[in-house]
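How it folds:
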Amino acid sequence: MYIKKIILTLFIALALFSCKKEIGDKMNGVSYSNEDVNNWIYQSMSSYYLWSTKMPALSATNLSSNPMNYFTSILYDYGNTDRFSWIDSSSANLINQLNGVNKILGVKLNAFLTDNAKPDGPIALVIAYVLKGSPAENAGLKRGDIILSVDDQTITTKNYSSILQNETLKLSFGIYTNGVFSSNNKSLSITKVELQTNPILIDTVINWSGKKVGYFAYTQFLISFDDSLRAVFGRFKSKGVNELIIDLRYNGGGYVTSSDLLTNLIVKDLGTRVNTVMNKKIYNDSYTQTLNKQSGTSAFVTNFQNEPNNLGNLNRVFVLTANNTASASELVINNLKPFMDVLLVGEHTYGKNVGSFTITDDQKRWNFGLQPITFKIANSLGQSDYGTVNGFAPNYLVVDNVLPFKLLGDPAETVLNKALNIIGGVAYVTNSTIQNINKHTILVQTEGLSDNKMMDKHDMYQHPPKHP
């Protein structure tokens, strides 16, 4: 019995020791338990989480659970009211993602049924865009290319969202002719690399029905490309652009400050609006009191600022939208609505009127990074009514399911063509082959997908407070 008691005591001690090290994180030679990390998570969320008063009481939570699971367990109505808060076991990885640095091939894709009559049948992945400087671009891939198998596996409804997750991928290609997908017996292997996203896919000026139409496609609001964005508008201004089309179909968000910059570059009569309200942020009661003490009302209000490359006299702007259009993209739309006509062409947007900032441990005891929703944002009129799964409804509904895809910026490209028709009132026909593109098939999901799932997050964020 005595020996059994010793063995039992040792077993319990070992179990407790294992629990203490369960998070597998050791900083400065000291190990911390799940309870330590989870207490920090709870206190951080109590300070900054937009719905902090809706969190369960600390005593009602399981502090011994895995921190990744614990974070999700304290979110308010997760999956419905809060569809957006997330956690990463590596704060460095999280910050890289927010700044557009990911290990990727560099493609966004749309998933199509290969046979409309077989909803569970094979799927074709059609490239929606290719990032500049990416392995995909270096391999010669372009918008409209069709992938029929990956690593010699047929793409199906069960694996299409995960089949591109390996680091090196063998892609086999096909063609789409007269409504039928078929193999073209071409394939290649591509290896992902860590890449800094260049979010400006294309900018061009289209001469259309006597108008000079500026068009650009933009995939993420990144502060490191703010000057590139200014340069785009500098080119538009120098060429006398008098109509503007912004393609945000594949833009899931990014930095609020970059979204504000784009608003400043577009809005009509900017000179009369400088230092007047563009938008307002709303925080939880606790953080509101803290900010009021630190900075007063300036902590909540963003004003218009002068931008020399503002186009100045536009009466309207066209925004190409899809279900990927989210967060900071929707913020531009909402910012501009009180001041000019904003015409949405495409599909309804994602519906995200809330944002976040990154929370890390200032004592550097562990590596977790939190990205909880910390604020809601409204325009100068106090409007913020697009935060539902239906987002903003388009003024002109156009589903981007016409194959083969035309290149972005091509006036014959389906959604761009619709916007140009509204501007000019005539259909665009370059040659007889355009008559052969009107072959429709069924999208498996309304949102595009990337070869790295982190590229598909929808977010709007700002710099974190000084002392999280």
Residues 206 and 464 are 40 Å apart (CA to CA). DSSP finds eleven helices and 27 strands in the chain. Residues 200-352+376-435 form a domain with the 2-enoyl-CoA Hydratase; Chain A, domain 1 fold (CATH 3.90.226.10).
